[in-house]
Amino acid sequence: MKIKFPLFFFLLPLVFAELQVGFYKSTCPQAESIVQQVIQTEFCRDPSITAALLRMHFHDCFVTGCDASILIDSTRNKPSEKAAGPNLTVRGFEVIDNAKKRLEAACPSIVSCADIITLATRDAIALAGGPNYTLPTGRRDGLVSNPDDVLLPGPGISVSGALQVFTAKGMALSEMVTLLGAHTVGIAHCFFFDYRLSNYEGSGAPDPSMDPGLVAELNVTCARNENATAFLDQSTSLTMDNEYFKQILLRKGILQIDQELALDRSTAGIVSGFASDRIVFQRSFAKAMRKLGSVQVLVGKAGEIRKNCRVFNTATKSTKEIRAF
């Protein structure tokens, strides 16, 4: 089945920082279509790939910038970002591998893994019913992947605490709320929120800010097994819409940070605005995602263009030299 992308899209300024829309126009003109084909095939098989790629993209950009450092595999002697606790449940790496393999066959050593993540995420968002927006490319891949660098906001963080993290990456309060709207297609393991279901802060009762009906449903879900998960949007779980904001206004936020957005005076108005207007949210989301994709990017001659997204080129070269020797 061929899935059509939404007809509506948002045209944004064509140049952002040193990235450019159409960066591969002359060196690999089919680059974006190759990534799109891979993601469309994967989305037909597994629509939850949208959430997986959004999470991968976020976890990559909020560590050392959007440099594909999250893709590097750990070795026996050197752990990578993948070994950090917050990244143990990140998935979708094989989808990026597939896109890279096809791009290397078409245009060897041209398209960066960092651009693949960003393009793949954009395409998955569109397939899930979200905005289809223009995206500048030209990112290069980083040369460092260290688990100690992975310091990400947890699901129980406060609004003010989360804002500090986002501000450090150049994102404003409204952009933080917008990007957390990605939870409309997200899932979470029960261990991220089960403390809210029965003995919240030692009270012997559930978190009073959570809808009692949702508490009952989640208790059933989480009793199944220790690895159980729940959709963060209990209504349109696989659709990139504004239902998430409507639900947290009804006290149906599963993660504490989600519910806090609707309760905190600094963000409640933004939440209400997005809940009442899907198009406004999607326009804001397209703009915020484009900005997120520009965080601390490497351009020009910085970094490298990896041949294998899981391994630095220098490591690949060293391995070959050792084998030859």
Describe, in short, the structure shown.
With 325 residues, the protein is mainly α. The protein has twelve helices and six strands.
Describe the structure.
This protein has 325 residues and is mainly alpha-helical. The chain folds into 2 domains: 17-151 and 293-315, Peroxidase, domain 1, CATH 1.10.520.10; 159-288, Peroxidase, domain 2. 43% of the residues lie in helices and 4% in strands. The chain contains 12 helices and 6 strands. The strands form 3 sheets. Strands 1-4 form a two-stranded parallel sheet. The chain has a two-stranded antiparallel ribbon with strand order 2-3. Strand 2 (15-16) and strand 3 (19-20) form a beta hairpin. The radius of gyration is 20 Å and the shape is globular. Residues 4-17 and 317-325 have low confidence and may be disordered.
Would you count the extended β strands for me? 6
What percentage of residues falls in helices of 4 or more residues? 40-55%
Q: What is the global morphology?
A: globular
Q: Which structural class is indicated by helix and strand composition? A: mainly alpha
User: How many domains, as an integer?
Assistant: 2
CATH architecture of the largest domain, by name, is: Orthogonal Bundle
- The poorly predicted ranges are 4-17, 317-325
Please give the radius of gyration in angstroms: 20 Å
Helix/strand order: EEEHHHHEHHEHEHHHHH
Read across the widest sheet, the strand sequence of neighbours is 1-4
- CA-CA gap between termini: 50 Å
Please, what is the average pLDDT?
92
Strand content: under 5%
CATH topology of the largest domain: Peroxidase, domain 1
Q: What is the level 1 CATH name of the largest domain? A: Mainly Alpha
User: Largest beta sheet, briefly?
Assistant: 2 strands, parallel
Subcellular location: Secreted
Signal peptide: 1-17
GO biological process, one term: hydrogen peroxide catabolic process
Disulfide bonds: 28-107, 61-66, 113-309, 190-222
